Amino acid sequence: MSALLRRLRHDERGMSFVFVGLGFMAFLAATTLAIDVGMFATARSQAQNSADAGALAGATALYYDDFDDRSATGPAVQYAIATARASANRVMGTATSVAPSDVTFPSENRVRVNVFRTAERGNPVATLMGQYFGISNVNIAATATAEAAPANGMTCVKPFIIPDRWREGATGQLATQNDTFEIFDKKGNPLVPPEVPDVYVDATHPVTEYTGYNNEADRGNPLILRAGTGNNIRPSFYFSLAMGVGAGDNPGGLTGGAAYDWNIANCNHLVIGWGQKVIQEPGNMVGPTIDGIEQLIARDPNARWDDSKNKVVGSAFPGQSPRVAPIPLYDPLEYAKGKQNGRFADFVVANWIGFFFESVQGNEIHGRIIPIAGISISGPTPTAAFPRTIRLVE
Predict the structure, then answer these.
(1) What is the pLDDT of residues 56-112, one digit of tens each?
(2) Burial degree of 139 (CB within 10 A; 0-12, 13-18, 19+)
(3) Distance between CA 338 and CA 184 in Å, rounded?
(4) Which single residue of 109, 169, 326, 359 could bond 352 by disulfide (Cβ 3.0 to 4.6 Å)?
């Protein structure tokens, strides 16, 4: 018997089954780790996409729909929630949990969105293999912040320019359509008491000091554009611009009046930056201007301004009607100084406005001031820029 026990003690038969069993357990553990950890990484990425989309939608609605309404039922909060929970932004096939309290406004121009798939919200992400080891689900959450930031560049601008707004020196009130910017007398000398020169404060100053157009305060205000006469500076007087048409925009290679007409009816992708000098198109461009505007209106004939909603409705285009376009504004002070020195052709871009082209009445272009999206390019950005660029900041 003792010999049998000694033989069994030294017998190594069957040890392979032990190693196979241990190896199988290690393989199962590694497989569990690979499957569940990979799934959690995917869920975390999808949750971040949900938060990003919600924040961008909230910032967009804040700027375009109602900048003052940050309530739970306001467009910024509601669009943020709807977008974050949209089918395209689900996490592992299930919508995230986003409550109105999860949409906050850390600053005037920013929207922050928190999204959840957690046990506390009743929608945690279930594990596949982890449940065999006592881990049935995990919590996933993500946060994103987007802002409507001042823009310093613009594309698709229309080839005419109007002056930025100023404050009338005599009354202290912002200029209206029939006012004329005056800082020099008829002999080119600076105005002196009792005459009071008009005042222009440019967009590099805070919004509260800037005398120009404001994307929220001026939203929906009517504006009538007329061809400028002589070199008078009036809010409603426009001057035509020589922009040309790039080959990528217009393979026909139009020039002069034909290019000018085309640029009004279509989108010229030339990028115009803040502070850039632009040059007037020579000749009488009233006819091509009116013709181009009529073509533009015909592209989306059912779009109209709704006073009750303070926005454009009825457009056949998703997002934005082609009848909403940027118009550049020139610095009236720089232009007036140029007039004094005999330079009438150069304009310095001081800002832009969004403009909804409502109708043409005779030689007048009627429309509404409306928020517009811009772009960010290299160079300084004015604090009080009218256009905004919607971007993620964290």
Answers:
(1) 999 999 998 888 899 999 999 999 999 999 988 999 899 999 999 999 999 989 999
(2) middle
(3) 12
(4) 326
Tokens of 302: 């059912």
Q: Does residue 318 have a cis bond before it (omega within 30 degrees)?
A: no
Please, which residues have CB within 8 angstroms of residue 233's CB and are 6 or more apart in sequence?
163, 180, 181, 332, 335, 336
pLDDT band at 129 (very low <50, low <70, confident <90, very high): low
Residue that is written with structure tokens 């065999």 in the block? 132
CB of 350 closer than 8 Å to CB of 203: yes
Pairing of strands 160-163, 324-330: parallel
Distance CA 253, CA 265 (A): 16
227: nearest Cα among 161, 294, 293? 161
Strands (E), the chain: 103-104, 110-117, 125-126, 137-138, 140-150, 153-154, 160-163, 222-227, 237-240, 272-273, 277-279, 304-306, 311-313, 324-330, 346-361, 364-370, 388-392
Q: In what order do the strands lie in the sheet with 388-392?
A: 103-104, 110-117, 140-150, 388-392
The conformation of residue 378, written as its DSSP 8-state character, comes to S
Furthest-apart CA pair in the chain: how many Å?
132
Provide the whole-model pTM.
0.81
CA distances from 131 to 35, 116, 128, 258 (A): 12, 21, 7, 71
**For the CA atoms of 336, 371, 369, 316, what is the dihedral angle to 10 degrees?**
140
Q: Are 334 and 348 in contact (CB under 8 A)?
A: yes
Q: Tell me the CA end-to-end span of the chain in Å, nearest whole number.
A: 77
